[in-house]
Design brief:
Blueprint lengths: L5 H13 L3 H13 L7 H13 L3 H13 L7 H12 L4 H13 L7 H13 L3 H10 L4 H13 L3 H13 L7 H12 L4 H13 L7 H13 L3 H13 L7 H13 L3 H13 L7 H13 L3 H13 L7 H13 L3 H11 L4 H19 L2
Helix pairs in contact: 1-2, 2-3, 3-4, 4-5, 5-6, 6-7, 7-8, 8-9, 9-10, 10-11, 11-12, 12-13, 13-14, 14-15, 15-16, 16-17, 17-18, 18-19, 18-20, 19-20, 19-21
Length: about 375
């Protein structure tokens, strides 16, 4: 006999649960948690989960682990959560194995242990747990072939981060044969699930014809979607199109609007571009002080051209007094990044400086480089 009525299902489960059926106890707990067929009652749900878990029913043990880990209906207790997850995991429950892996990785309820974390993630992933596969991919980033294998497994189950990372692997040939078409396909799957990084990659693919036929309309649509959602690189790219009138009506105002949003999020390209506009009075009143501020932010993030221009501003005294030491510092840093103009500027600056000034400039440059490398 098939029972269709939710109330009847609940009553049937109650009869079995009260007779000690662990599966029925667990399922009755789910009904009390959701309010299907019974009045919603989280405390009653917890009680039935416990009855089931005490009989060794792994799904109930995993749920109790979740409750204690999150502090839902009980006082948060990672050690108790760990204990329940372990009981379920040892019975082969994939989600419990995944959660146990996270507890070992993060040191919740137990000592941190990377090997145990990877072991339990592996157990879960082998049973098809997509999040565990993603964890394994991250843990094995130093092994590009293994990382790609696990990203592939997680991506096949629809995890957008894995699809995005798999796209990167196909785009660069890391751990997989380079394949722009497969890269685009992976990016598109992630983009359709709302991954902003993937939406930007899809836009660039349509823009440059990478793995797909070039399509300006699609490129703009995906750029606008990611930019509207606040993704800084997309805002930077769209701003560049407005600044140069590429596929859109030229508008410095819109470029500035987008670049300021991205720059405030730390996008170095946008910071540099704003410096250029303010320094040259394009779309705004020329403001050397504003320009210097934006160039400095970009320079501090390693943009060689911004470093070169900042050096020139220091050498010319455009914002403050002439400072050849700071100029030399920025020319030196920029030249080390391969900026040819800075190489020439560096040589000329040294003709205007004393040996002590040059030594101090080199010390500052070395100090900056050390700090930059350790960020």
């Amino acid at each position: 006999m098939v029972v269709k009525d939710a109330n009847a299902v609940a009553e049937s489960l109650r009869v079995l649960a009260e007779k000690g059926d662990a599966s029925a106890q667990y399922r009755l707990g789910l009904l009390y948690a959701s309010g299907q067929g019974v009045k919603q009652n989280p405390r009653q749900a917890l009680a039935w989960y416990r009855e089931s878990a005490d009989q060794g029913f792994a799904p109930a043990q995993c749920v109790l682990g979740n409750k204690y880990a999150l502090g839902q209906g009980v006082k948060q207790n990672f050690k108790t959560a760990f204990s329940w997850y372990l009981k379920a995991a040892e019975q082969g429950h994939a989600r419990a194995q995944y959660h146990l892996g996270t507890m070992y990785e993060e040191g919740h309820g137990t000592e941190k242990d990377a090997m145990d974390a990877e072991y339990w993630y592996f157990q879960a992933a082998e049973q098809g747990d997509a999040e565990a596969a993603l964890k394994l991919a991250r843990l094995n980033e130093d092994n590009q072939y293994m990382a790609a294998t696990w990203y592939l497994k997680a991506a096949e189950q629809g995890i957008p981060e894995a699809q995005f990372m798999l796209g990167n692997r196909y785009a660069t040939g890391q751990g997989l044969r380079k394949d722009p078409a497969k890269a685009f396909d992976s990016y598109l799957k992630a983009a359709n699930q709302g991954d902003l990084r993937a939406q930007w990659k899809v836009a660039l693919a349509y823009q440059d014809g990478l793995g797909v036929d070039a399509d300006e309309g699609e490129a703009l649509e995906w750029l606008a979607k990611a930019a509207k959602a606040g993704f800084a690189p997309a805002q930077a790219s769209l701003g560049l199109r407005y600044a140069n009138g590429l596929g859109v009506a030229q508008s410095y105002a819109k470029a500035i609007f987008l670049w300021e949003k991205a720059a405030k999020k730390g996008d170095a390209e946008s910071q540099h571009n704003l410096g250029y506009l303010f320094n040259n009075g394009l779309g705004v009143t020329k403001d050397v002080k504003q320009a210097e501020g934006w160039y400095r932010q970009a320079a501090e993030q390693g943009v060689a051209e911004a470093q070169c221009i900042l050096g020139l501003m220091c050498a010319r005294g455009e914002v403050a007094e002439i400072d050849y030491i700071e100029a030399h510092k920025w020319f030196s840093i920029s030249a080390m990044a391969g900026n040819k103009a800075s190489e020439a500027n560096l040589k000329y600056a040294e003709t205007l400086m004393t040996p002590d000034q040059i030594a101090e400039a080199k010390r500052r440059a070395a100090e900056w480089m050390e700090t930059f490398r350790n960020r």
